[in-house]
User: Fold this.
Amino acid sequence: MKRIIATVLLALVASVTPVSATIDDALSLALEAANPYVKEGFTVREDYWGGDLPVKQTKAIVHQLFKGNEYWFWMATDVKDAKISVHIYDSDGNLAETESKAVPVNGGKAHASFVRPKKTGSYYLIVEIEKSPEERTTWSLAYGFR
Amino acid sequence: MKKAFVLFCGLSTFALAETADTVPLKIDISQLPPQSKLIDNVVVPVPSEIFGVLDRLGKPNWTAVLRTFKRPIKPSGDQSQIALLLGTVIAEGFIAVEAENAEEVKKIGNNVLILSKSLNADRKAKQRAQSISEAADRKDWQTVRRELDKALDDVKETMVEMQSEQISQLVSLGGWLRGTEALTAVVTNDFKPDGAELLHQPMLLDYFEKRLANMPTKIKSNAVVTKVQQGILDIRPLVGTVDGTQISEKTVKEIGRISADLVKAINAKAQ
Assistant:
């Protein structure tokens, strides 16, 4: 009997708990944000970053960029009411991006930043969940170059 | 796209002093907590990311850089060596695209399939090889580049699923070595400081060095892997530490010599 009750309770909980967001869902939105730039000649890499973060916490990703290229970084989440951001800093900690903006996507939020590196070397991609109704917000970050 | 992914830790100790709509113009990189500076999840650039810059700096003779395959590749050595070999073959594919050599691209697509099978990572390789071949016939180089990147990712994804993530890292390393060898060949042929600067990749070298050091003894004991590990240590001081470092023509040649030697060791008995 206890087992049946537990099963019913579990079923009830499952029916009201939203399906957890996945990095793949966030990635689909990041790629949706990237789509217009592909038409402008940007090659979007297959590799990407992702994870989940609480509100107001950041993550720094170190990434190699090459002078002579242009880069767009697209960050997305499928949490509709979230506000997210990605910003690009050089190895001295200077803001390196020349453009940064929210990008409309269906079913979530996306933010993109653009950089034309002045030097070849390591850059810091700072991702942040600025606002979110969720305790932890799943995100994904893709990039493209030309 | 790889599905398995690493969960990043939230960094409560590092918060940007930022209001909702302002972005700090400067941050203190040294204040980033140690875990945020770890390079566990490095995305290794594909060769075309660098080759595109070289194309803008001059007119590289990619045909001279390209190594042609006279016959289908023969997988040789253990899994770690085959993984390194696969990486060099995929990088050769990017060079073949630069050279706009459709026949060679098709051969490379087939070689990717042969090597993927040897690694038991050929689930998507047949379809990928076909896409590469069809795009090469159409001279649709952008699609070939994309398919090569996907081939790299397919193998890595399968290896991760097979609990062989370390082998998958060797694929990236092999690709990086052949890409670096090609880069040094182009820069040596027509030296320009901006071209040489593309070799300044200390973070990637640190990443490879760390990954190789943490590989199981079984992998590290392979003679080719041991040689590659030493080669990475030899290249590391040559690329400089500070961004903006000028890399001399002599240093470019030295990096070229080391990377060529490693690529030759990886490819021994493969053709």
Q: What stands out?
A: The longest helix of chain A spans residues 23-38. The helical segments of chain A are 2-16, 23-38.
